[in-house]
Amino acid sequence: MSSCGLALAPPAKNVVVYRNGDPFFPGRKFVVNQRRFPTFEAFLNEVTKSIRAPLAVRNIYTPRHGHRIAELGDLQDGCQYVAAGFEKFKKLDYLNHGKKELRGTRNSEGLQWLAFFPTFHSCRSTGSSHALGCFYCSVFRNGDLLSPPFPLPLSKSTSLQWDALLATLTEKADLHSGAVKKLCRLDGTQVSSGEELVNGDYYVAVGNEEYKKLPYFELLVPQDSARRTLWYVD
User: Fold this and answer.
1) Residues 6+ away with beta carbon under 8 Å from 126
2) Where are the beta strands (DSSP E) in 56-192?
3) By three-state DSSP, how is residue 47 classified?
4) How far apart are CA 141 and CA 180, in angstroms?
5) Torsion-angle region of residue 231: left (phi > 0), alpha (psi -120 to 50) or beta?
6) What does the pLDDT average to over 162-175?
7) For a designed S-S bond to 151, which of 27, 116, 147, 221 qualifies (C-beta 3.0 to 4.6 A apart)?
8) What is the structure's pLDDT at 133?
9) Which residues contact 84 (CB under 8 A, 6 or more apart)?
10) How many CB atoms are closer than 10 A to CB 132?
11) Residue ranges of the Doublecortin domain (predicted)?
C-alpha cells in the first residue's frame, strides 16, 4: 500500500520565477510539490511573498512567449516562469538578466555609469579619493522598483552646494513627479546637507511626494554587482 501511495504522488518540480517587467530581478527558486502547495492559489500566494511583488501575483507565464500557466500540473521541472498580477505579460530577456546588471531601463543609464568611471579613476590615479575629497553615492528613484540606482560622483566642494546637488539629482533621476526636492536614506530619514553624505552609501531621490519605504537595495542591487562596487570605495 505504501509503495502504491508513493508511486501516485507526483514528483517535486524545481522552477525559477521572475518578476514581470523587471529585467534586473535575479529570479527566485521554488520546489513545487503537492504537500507544500496543495493548490495553485497557494503557489501564487507564496510567489507573491517570495518575490516581493508590489501587487498580488495572479498569473504565471512562460518567459519567452508569454503562455499562461493555468495549474500546477502545467509547470515543468527545471523551467523558468514570470509572475504577474492582472497586468499584461511584458516580454523581456528574463533568462539573460545577468548581462544587464549595469544597464538601466532608460537610454541614458549606461552613459551615466560610463561617465562615472573616469571620474572616479581620475581620483584614484592621483592619490587617495578621501584625500582629494572625491567620493560617490548611489541613488534610487522614489517608488521605482524597476530602475537600478544611478551613480552620483561627488567632491566635497560640489556636495556642499546643496541646491546645485538637487539640480543634478533632478536631471539624473528624471522623476515622474518632477524636480528632486529631497534626498533620503534607505530608512527614510532626510539628508539636509552634502556634509551628511557617506562615501559608497545608497540614497533615494524624492520629489514633492512622501518617501516610499520599499526594499530598493534588496530588489535592485544584484549580489555580484554589490560586491563589485566595493572595488570603487577606498
Assistant:
1) 132
2) 59-61, 68-69, 80-84, 134-141, 150-155, 182-185, 190-191
3) helix
4) 10
5) alpha
6) 88
7) 116
8) 54
9) 20, 21, 57, 58, 59, 60, 61, 90
10) 14
11) 13-95, 139-217
Go through 28-60 and write b for each residue having 16 or more CB atoms within 10 A of its CB, e for each that does not: bebebeeeebeebeebbebbbeebebeeebebb
Q: How far apart are CA 68 and CA 83, in angstroms?
A: 10
Cell of 9: 504522488
Can you tell me the distance from the alpha carbon of 10 to that of 33, in angstroms, rounded to the nearest whole number?
7
What are the sequence ranges of the domains in the chain? 13-84, 134-220
Domain 13-84 shares a fold with domain 134-220: yes
Closest CA relative to residue 211, chosen from 186, 178, 188 = 188
Distance between CA atoms of residues 84 and 95, nearest Å = 16
126 SS3 class: helix
* DSSP codes of every residue in 138-172: EEEETT-SSSPPEEEEEEHHHHH-HHHHHHHHHHH
H-helix or E-strand spanning residue 12:
none
CB 154 within 8 A of CB 133: no
- Of the listed ranges 110-119, 186-195, 220-229, the least confidently predicted one is 110-119
The overall pTM is greater than 0.90: no
User: Nearest to residue 89, comparing CAs of 27, 26, 21?
Assistant: 21
- 112-116, 159-163, 181-185, 194-198 — which one is most confidently predicted on average? 181-185
- Residue 38, helix vs strand vs coil: coil
